[in-house]
Amino acid sequence: MDDASSQSSKFRSRNLTTFAAQQAVGLIVLYIVLLFVLPSGQDGLRSYHLTNFELKVVHFAISLPVLLVWLAAFLGFASLRQYAIAIRKTPEGEYFARLADGVTWLAWSLPIAGLATLILNSMANQWPGFQPTSVIITNYINLLFPLIAFSIIGVASRGLVIHANVKLGLAAARLIIIVFLIAGVLYCYLTFRHFDLSNLGTTNNPYYLPIWLMVLTVIVPYLYAWFVGILSSYEITLLSRQVRGVLYRRPLQWLAVGLATIIVSSIALQYVNGIYPRGGHLVLDYRLVINVLFRIVGGAGFIILAIGAARLKKIEDV
Question: pTM of the full predicted structure?
Answer without folding.
Answer: 0.86
